[in-house]
Amino acid sequence: MPYIDQESRDELDPQIDKLIDQIDYTNMGEINYVVTRLCDALFDGEIRYGKINSLIGALECAKLELYRRVAAPYEDSKIKSNGEVYRSISPEAPKAIITPEDDNSEPRKSGYKWFFGS
Prior knowledge:
mainly alpha, about 0% strand, elongated, about 120 residues, about 60% helix, 4 helices
């Protein structure tokens, strides 16, 4: 969770701001490099599963928070301006109604077998 206390932010932000001013944001390789260097610094010469696991967890949570706070609202605005794509959740989409007398199919396969056909 990136929502650290203000005292910690005040200590870290000047260094982060310097780095922000130096990065070429048109070059995703530079961003990858910075993230990689930060990750590598965590190991400090000692690669252990616990550190790897914790770091991957922090990266995954940062990714999820970016999606939740930035990407999802952006996508929601595009749904409003361009229209829904998922017919299965659109209130305007016609819903198929199958009554027991209409359903002459075999019992459905569940989960994996239904999707992959085995």
